[in-house]
Design brief:
This protein is an alpha+beta fold. Helices cover about 50% and strands about 10% of the residues.
């Protein structure tokens, strides 16, 4: 008799594989048959007569590709007649060209554009690649067929010529341009060409206050604005919904909880989202995040969620603050570093990606920057106050009758000015300067109020500018209020803490703007050096009898940067970090120099010195980046000193005013 275990084993039947089209592998779509009516609906082919359309339909292939699939990938066709012509009807395609110097993006195609091989091929072209940046649909036909249509239909010839002209002009003005080329390539590589909108953050004027993140979280209850993972120099693209023209998230939801609003065109997620995560997985920009319902205030932030809604999680994304008149993150930015542009015009904002080369903040203004009038008002107003106060101090010693004190005395407001008795902190005029300076410092805190109720009480940028210049103006009045008499301990403590607060706010902010700018410039320079290294590596390998020897030498030189233990700058004290950094630099220079004999023995004649020079330059740039990282880490902590010194200053100011009033009464 069989044992229970044997019986159980016999009853166990191996499951059949899942059926296609259900839970198993996705059923491959049937190829689309091209018809004359389909071609007639495409603007490029609409001018053709019906007989030509019917003949052409039999010779055209319809292509339906997913993101990252290649429309074409290989060496250019030998003859023009056999070369493929693609007409894009949906989605965007990046065009890559490979030469001896490597592969680079040379253009991109959008719906309605036509690809003709001869537009992108020159004498150095080794390979062409057309890659779908999102799901696309395209038509493929041969150049000989297009050439036949050009001869038969003048109207088609004009339409085709206009289409080709758009593609070539885009390449000439964007990708072949000396200034815009790298930026255009960056935009295509990051697939921003089909974005409905793009938020941009300029780190040259960002003070890293996290106000944009806090404002988004406060308004929506979740983090809809992600960290900036896409960067070019000092310009960053936050991880945020781009409201794509070709979205990959909507069709993933099987419950119909994500859709495009017909009135606004905004992609929105309903409050009854089931939390299935499919839209989050479908978004190639990782802009949709999942949140546990247990951690959210549902009545406040999701009032339309029904009592029968299923799921323990909910998907959230930026909907451009659809129910509000402003965008919380942009409104909360005190410097205008965060702003939003229309995705269709992103190439027109190429200058926003060159701020690391721009000597001043005002050279490239953001779309929400403060008005130029207010930018000029505060410096001129502060300078005028300084000049007038300086004249008062100087005039009392040399021309007392021409001072404000004498004018106020004639008006009967104060006692007559005694030329032998210069201005003092305790006289009426000195007290007035102190009161004005103290009032300016107290007025700096109105920034908190303006930030809380913006934009109803004005833009945060205007309040931030007032905050800075009122602080500087308060320091000016406090300086002349002291009349350089630093004998009272409480008064000295008040002035010193005020000076520290202003210096950490103004000077610290300037350095925080300057250091990342230099760091980005060094990083871009390092990338240029690395490109030169790759070119020289290939030349050196070709100079060896056995190319493997050249490759091995390059690996040794590249590995020198990793030979030392990494210095964790963020966790080191300032002095310790500098000492360890200098030690690592010294050992790296010595190791590179130690390879000179081996390089000279194996490199092609005349190339050894160039290799050594290039890698010494690379090591120098890497050392600069590490030093900038150390300095930037320290400078980011200036806000702690600024806020602390400001609080101490206000305490000392209250004590100083109270002490002065008590002394006056006494």
């Amino acid at each position: 008799m069989a044992s229970p275990a044997t019986t159980k084993a016999k009853k166990k039947v191996r499951k059949a594989p899942p059926k296609k089209g259900k839970k198993g592998r996705k059923k491959k779509a049937e190829p689309v048959v091209v018809t004359a009516d389909m071609l007639a609906a495409i603007p490029l082919f609409a001018p053709l007569e019906r007989p030509l359309l019917e003949r052409l339909a039999t010779r055209v292939e319809h292509l339906d590709l997913e993101r990252t699939e290649h429309l074409f990938d290989g060496a250019p066709a030998g003859g023009d007649d056999d070369s493929p012509v693609f007409v894009l009807t949906f989605g965007d395609v990046s065009v890559h060209r490979t030469t001896a110097d490597g592969e680079r993006v040379v253009n991109y195609l959008r719906p309605g554009d036509a690809y003709v091989q001869k537009l992108f091929v020159d004498g150095s072209t080794q390979k062409l690649r057309l890659t779908a940046m999102c799901p696309i649909r395209a038509l493929r036909l041969k150049y000989r067929d297009v050439n036949y249509l050009l001869r038969k239909s003048p109207t088609f010839r004009d339409a085709f010529s206009a289409t080709i002209r758009q593609v070539t002009e885009r390449q000439a003005t964007r990708f072949d341009d000396t200034f815009q080329g790298e930026i255009a390539e960056f935009i295509v590589k990051e697939r921003l060409t089909f974005a409905g909108r793009v938020k941009i953050k300029r780190m040259d004027i960002c003070i890293e206050c996290d106000g944009c993140y806090d404002a988004c979280r406060t308004r929506h209850g979740t983090d809809r604005l992600g960290a900036s993972e896409v960067k070019y120099g000092l310009t960053e693209i936050p991880q945020n919904c781009h409201n794509c023209l070709v979205p990959e998230c909507i069709d993933k939801c099987k419950f119909g909880q994500i859709s495009r609003d017909e009135a606004t065109g905004e992609i929105v997620i309903a409050d009854n989202c089931t939390g299935c995560t499919m839209c989050s997985r479908g978004c190639s920009f990782d802009a949709i995040r999942m949140h546990s319902l247990a951690d959210l205030d549902l009545p406040r932030y999701f009032p339309d969620r029904g009592p029968d809604a299923k799921g323990k999680n909910i998907a959230q994304k930026c909907d451009n603050c659809a129910k509000y008149r402003d965008q919380a993150c942009i409104t909360a930015c005190p410097t205008g570093a965060m702003f939003q542009i229309d995705g269709k015009s992103i190439f027109d904002y190429w200058e926003q990606f060159t701020v690391h080369h721009t000597p001043g903040v005002g050279e490239v203004d953001t779309s929400v920057a403060a008005r130029q009038g207010s930018k000029r008002f505060w410096p001129l107003f502060t300078l005028a106050n300084f000049v007038l106060l300086f004249w008062e101090c100087l005039g009392r010693a040399w021309w007392p009758e021409l001072t404000f004190g004498a004018f106020f005395a004639r008006m009967g407001w104060v006692a007559a000015v005694d030329p032998a008795d210069l201005m003092k902190p305790g006289d009426a005029f000195g007290h007035a300067l102190g009161y004005i300076g103290g009032s300016c410092m107290i007025a700096t805190q109105l920034y908190r109020l303006g930030k809380r109720y913006a934009p109803r009480l004005g833009s945060v940028q205007a309040w931030m500018e007032s905050h800075i210049w009122l602080g500087v103006l308060g320091l000016v009045y406090a300086f002349f209020h002291t009349t350089q008499n630093f004998r009272e301990p409480i008064a000295v403590a008040t002035f010193v803490t005020m000076l520290v607060a202003i210096l950490t706010g103004v000077v610290g902010r300037y350095l925080l703007y300057l250091v990342p700018r230099s760091q980005a410039g060094q990083q871009l320079a390092l990338e240029e050096i690395e490109q030169k290294v790759q070119t020289l590596n290939r030349q050196i390998e070709e100079g060896f009898v056995d190319r493997r020897h050249g490759y091995t030498m390059m690996v040794k030189i590249d590995g020198l940067a990793d030979a030392d233990e990494e210095v964790d700058l963020a966790s080191q004290r300032l002095l310790t970090g500098i000492v360890r950094l200098l030690g690592a630099d010294r050992r790296q220079r010595k190791a590179i120099e130690g390879l000179r004999g081996e390089v000279e023995g194996q490199a092609e004649e005349g190339k050894a010195a160039a290799v050594m020079k290039l890698f010494k330059e690379r090591a120098r740039l890497e050392r600069s980046l590490r030093r900038y990282a150390l300095l930037a880490t320290i400078l980011r902590r200036y806000r702690v000193v600024h806020v602390t010194s400001s609080n101490v200053m206000f305490g000392a100011l209250i004590v100083h005013i109270g002490h002065s009033l008590m002394y006056s009464v006494g």
